[in-house]
Write a structure and sequence with these properties.
This protein has 10 helices and 16 strands. The longest helix has about 35 residues, at about 5-40. It is about 30% helix and about 20% strand. The strands form 2 sheets. Strands 2, 3, 4, 5, 6, 7, 10, 11, 12, 13, 14, 15 and 16 form a 13-stranded mixed beta sheet that branches. Strands 1-8-9 form a 3-stranded mixed beta sheet, with no helix packed on it. By secondary structure, it is an alpha+beta fold. Helix 2 (about 60-75) crosses helix 3 (about 80-85) and helix 2 (about 60-75) crosses helix 4 (about 100-120). The chain has 2 domains: about 45-120, no CATH class; about 170-385, Carbonic Anhydrase II (Roll). Bound molecules: zinc ion (ZN). Zinc ion binds near residues 250 and 336.
Length: about 375
């Protein structure tokens, strides 16, 4: 540090400028994150989401979109929002100056056709390539379910559990999931279902999971099946040369997976998705012990009402979620909630993290038991990292 007056002036000049630069970068990153989040949030609805809408009500149903377009047509001048919504379609042209009812109908038909075309081409469709009926509309509703359950961020504004009549007990409990809907069939007939009791894994040197996590804005939702945290973009893992992005995480009590028969107090499932829609879940077992600082941040933002996202005023550093030691078990399995889609890469951290008895009791007041029973490992390859 120089103590000459001139350099101290220069320093103090530089300070604010750096700050401004930093703020600029922060804004740019934030904008990027939001864009990306929209991709997930509205994936089931195609790429026609308007980025200007607040996230909580970002569900741009066709109806809303049409209403916006209609309003724009009526106003006889291009509405910047409607423009964004119309996105890359041929409707980028100037709005007609005078619109008759029949022209308006044609416009609406055209919009519907565009939206359908986009839905058919939307990346969300890729997630459920494995789903039995690849028809665009059904696939999208399946995508919504898969996302609500495990696959991606819950569609904001849409009650995640709304059309899912499945529970953890009773007539619509895990034994019946496969019969509730044709698209839940894998829950009964699947051969690589999760969770499993992890035992007799083949001990090998597994390549470490490369965690690239950073402090991120987050929102908490009680979706009727669990407490889920939806995150902005920016957290990734790389494993076997494949990069997956963290989309959401949620909790089960008790832990769904067992290790040599032992069940833990809770588990956090960190759900990642790669560009092709393949899922990779990192499971962090939670044992009773010291308070978990990050779990506390989530509990602090528990929403007062179900199916409503509560944004947190602070950021979440997912590195704090991970145990100190990063060895893991790995096997191929499924979503542990309907539709029980298979082809999910599971990585279960060997070392549990801890949460306090009080923190566990907070969750159990909401969900005393939201763990699917263990499924047959049926000769599946389980690898245990050393
Ligand atoms: Zn889970």
């Amino acid at each position: 540090m120089s103590s000459t007056p001139s350099s101290s002036i220069r320093l103090s000049m530089r300070g604010p400028r750096l700050l401004i630069l930093a703020a600029g970068v922060g804004l740019a990153l934030g904008a990027q994150a939001n864009d990306h989040d929209d991709d997930h949030a509205s994936g089931a609805h195609g790429a026609a989401s308007s980025k200007d809408e607040p996230k909580v009500i970002a569900k741009d149903s066709l109806k809303q979109k049409l209403a916006a377009d209609k309003a724009a047509a009526k106003a006889k001048k291009p509405d910047p929002k409607a423009e964004t919504a119309a996105a890359s379609g041929s409707s980028g042209k100037a709005e007609p100056t005078s619109v008759s009812m029949s022209e308006l109908r044609d416009l609406i038909d055209q919009k519907i056709a565009e939206v359908r075309a986009k839905q058919a081409a939307a990346p969300a469709v890729k997630i459920i390539n494995k789903a039995p009926k690849p028809r665009a509309v059904e696939v999208n509703s399946q995508a919504k379910q898969a996302m609500a359950a495990h696959g991606a961020a819950t569609v904001p504004g849409l009650p995640a559990g709304h059309d899912l009549h499945w529970e953890y007990t009773g007539a619509t409990g895990p034994q019946s999931w496969g019969q509730l809907k044709p698209e839940f069939q894998a829950c009964n007939t699947g051969k690589r279902q999760s969770p499993i009791d992890i035992r007799e894994g083949i001990k090998v040197q597994l390549e470490p999971i490369q965690f690239d996590y950073r402090p991120t804005p987050f929102r908490v939702i009680d979706n009727g099946h669990t407490v889920q945290v939806n995150l902005d973009a920016g957290n990734n893992i790389t494993v076997s040369g494949r990069r997956y992005e963290l989309v959401q995480f949620h909790f089960h009590r008790p832990s769904e997976e067992r290790i040599n028969g032992r069940q833990y107090e809770m588990v956090a499932h960190l759900v990642h998705k790669d560009a092709q829609g393949r899922l990779a879940v990192v499971a962090v077992l939670l044992d009773q012990g010291k308070e978990h600082p990050m779990v506390q941040l989530v509990w602090n933002s528990l929403p007062l009402e179900k199916s409503t996202e509560q944004a947190s005023p602070v950021m979440l550093d997912m590195n704090l979620m991970l145990p100190e030691q990063r060895q893991y078990y790995t096997y191929m399995g499924s979503l542990t909630t309907p539709p029980c889609t298979e082809g999910v890469l599971w990585m279960v951290m060997k070392q549990p993290a801890t949460l306090s008895p009080y923190q566990a009791s907070v969750f159990s007041r909401l969900y005393a038991n939201n763990a699917r029973p263990v499924q047959s490992a049926s000769g599946r390859m389980i690898k245990e990292g050393q």
